[in-house]
Write a structure and sequence with these properties.
Blueprint lengths: L1 H18 L15 E7 L4 E9 L4 E5 L5 E3 L5 E6 L2 E6 L2 E10 L2 E9 L1 H7 L28 H6 L9 E9 L2 E4 L2 H8 L4 H10 L7 H4 L2 H6 L1
Antiparallel strand pairs: 1-2, 1-5, 2-3, 3-4, 5-6, 6-7, 7-8, 8-9, 9-10
Length: 223
């Protein structure tokens, strides 16, 4: 029995490890390689290309017919689907979406680079750790991968520093993004519903960093 439980625990850890984003200063992308995905264009048409999400900029990158990485203009598409993952632009960044009651109400998660950790350890964007600069950097300072060869970037993807990725959670209510915290959500619904919200939380334990748990908040909004 103990052996079975141990094997199950190892299997769960393996799945968790697979779900983690592994990115580097030389490969600041959501996926380990560009994936065949679908851009849902603003006019309703669909465009299938090898695509990836740039973690620093929150932009959509794709590979053109010459094998060069390009950026898709933000106004060109309304959503992106890569496998089972759906992304939409929220607050200027592409975020992974968990659908809610309708198109304007959903949960969004932004995966981004923790620049604080990167600055603490040193390491300029795009340089190997052995020659890393200790200068402080911001997302504004960091260049993208646009107009570079996909093959060349892939060959050198692990030559940079390993990036620490953190998630920010949002509740999108009628098209407006609200940070997923008890305080921010409470302010968004207004003081007139504070008592009802308090009662709701007593009956429903909300994990503010779990998409499925956050979906319960739409039940409260519908009351």
């Amino acid at each position: 029995m103990k052996r079975i439980l141990l094997l199950m625990a190892c299997w769960a850890l393996a799945l968790s490890a697979q779900a983690q984003i592994v990115a580097y200063t030389t490969w600041p992308y959501y996926y380990s390689d560009f994936q065949q995905g679908t851009m849902i264009l603003s006019n309703g048409q669909r465009n299938v290309k090898p695509i990836n999400i740039h973690l620093l900029k929150g932009d959509l990158h794709f590979i053109d017919d010459k094998g060069i990485i390009q950026m898709a203009p933000a106004g060109q598409f309304s959503a992106v689907q890569i496998g089972d993952d759906i992304f939409r632009r929220v607050g200027g960044y592409l975020m992974k979406v968990t659908p809610g009651p309708d198109d304007k109400n959903f949960i969004a998660v932004r995966s981004l680079v923790d620049l604080t950790v990167l600055n603490e350890t040193g390491g300029a964007y795009g340089t190997p750790g052995t020659t890393a600069s200790t200068q402080r950097i911001t997302s504004v300072d960091m260049p993208g991968m646009v107009n570079t060869s996909h093959m060349e970037i892939m060959q050198n993807k692990e030559n940079g520093k390993r990036l620490t990725i953190k998630n920010e959670y949002y509740i999108v209510i009628n098209g407006t993004a609200v940070k997923a915290t008890k305080k921010d959500f409470g302010e968004a619904i207004g003081s007139e519903r504070a008592a009802a919200f308090k009662q709701f939380l007593k009956k429903n334990k909300i994990n503010w960093k779990d998409e499925e748990s956050l979906l319960k908040l739409f039940d409260f909004l519908a009351e």
